[in-house]
Design goal:
The chain has 154 residues and is α/β, with parallel strands linked by helices. The chain has helices at residues 16-28, 44-53, 72-77, 98-105, 119-134, 139-152, and strands at residues 6-10, 33-37, 61-67, 84-89, 114-115. The chain is globular and about 40 Å long.
Length: 154
């Protein structure tokens, strides 16, 4: 794989197993990614600095996983114009991740975050949404994603 085009951010090391489907789906499509642990609440300066530097670092899409209040995707989107995809995680005791869904989706106008389903389905779909976005500028990713979709529909 080449230079990572997708950054995967998660608020805690405990989220790593939940985000494995994202990493696996991206790798299966030949899309290089890089995973980082940073918290919108515990390490806000690290989040800000990463998001502000992401474009210059070569990233084209950022996938953020967060549970509970799920502020990480919005905190990142506030600092970059790159597409941000939020993966809500059911890591709190509130209704299977519904709190995280609202945290991901309820962004103010002009600071969008794309949201996917809670958990493993969402983690995989975040990778596929990233592939769809990247396919607009990368012929190899477009071909790999089209082949995946064709195979899936058989």
């Amino acid at each position: 794989m080449s230079t990572p085009l997708v950054a995967i951010l998660m608020g805690s090391k405990n989220d790593a197993a939940l985000m494995e489907p994202t990493e696996q789906a991206l790798a299966g499509l030949g899309i290089a990614s890089e995973t980082h642990v940073m918290s919108a609440h515990r390490t806000p300066d690290k989040v800000r600095d990463f998001a502000r530097a992401a474009l210059d670092s070569g990233f084209e899409v950022i996938i953020c996983a967060a549970g509970g209040a799920a502020h990480l995707p919005g905190a990142v989107a506030a600092q970059t114009t790159l597409p941000v995809i939020g993966v809500p995680l059911a890591t709190s005791d509130v209704a299977g991740g519904q709190d995280a869904i609202y945290g991901v989706l309820q962004m103010p106008p002009g600071v969008p975050v794309a949201g996917v389903a809670v958990g493993a389905w969402g983690a995989r779909n975040a990778a596929f949404l990233a592939a769809a976005i990247l396919s607009l500028g990368h012929d190899d990713i477009r071909a790999a994603y089209a082949a995946f979709r064709e195979k899936q529909s058989r």
